[in-house]
């Protein structure tokens, strides 16, 4: 399901380091449907990129990203394509509970969706319910970046009642506390947890 870019509004800003976990854990908790989120940054003028070497390198890096040579075996993919100022870097990351085939399917579909949504982007990213795909004109390894960030929101109201809101926040914080412990106890490579908490409104 795609959502109009104008409908994606900033609700919270989170660092790149924690971006993957918040949309994949919090959004289902607060009762939203999964929404694909695009970030198209540093766009070329329409006439510049269409036949450019950079665009060919974007296509090349996204096409080759999911080869076994570019994977750590746990749903993380990294690749680079091209040279000098036309070099393109890409990363793909799948949710921790996805099997290899589902991960590859998600990243392949995301490749086409990302190119359609950001046809002139020097840098772009796409979040889906199952994976994240990003490319850039600079290396993303070993750096914490605040942009691009992804945000989401629920159009459902918890309650205008202060007592119900307090209970909701208490259950949410308790759930996140449990999930934080599970993630921290994960192995060296895959850190993933999922859970839910129910309450009557």
TrEMBL record:
Keyword set includes Repeat: yes
PROSITE patterns named among the record's database cross-references: GNK2 (PS51473)
Pfam families noted in UniProt: Stress-antifung (PF01657)
Cross-referenced InterPro entries: GNK2, GNK2_sf
Signal peptide (UniProt feature, chain positions): 1-34
Residue ranges of domain Gnk2-homologous in the record: 35-140
Alphabetized UniProt keyword annotations: Repeat, Signal
Alphabetized PANTHER family for the sequence: CYSTEINE-RICH REPEAT SECRETORY PROTEIN, GNK2-HOMOLOGOUS DOMAIN-CONTAINING PROTEIN
Protein name (database record): Cysteine-rich receptor-like protein kinase 28
Biological source species: Prunus mume (Japanese apricot)
